[in-house]
Amino acid sequence: MSKFINYLKESYVELVKKTTWPTWDKLQSSAILVMVTTALLAVALFLIDFVFQHLMTAIYTL
Description:
- By secondary structure, the chain is mainly alpha-helical.
- The protein is 87% helix and 0% strand.
- The protein has a domain at 22-62.
- The protein contains two helices and no strands.
- The longest helix has 37 residues, at 24-60.
- It is elongated.
């Protein structure tokens, strides 16, 4: 049990004193970048799926 308590204490010290957290502005810009990238990838995958669907439909109706 003492090993577990020691682990919790060391984890707390590392999270509070040794970790550098991003500033609010940096966090917001990173979140916006992730959302924009996700939206662009979703659109790209939609277009690929749309083209592939129509291509397969054209092939199967021959």
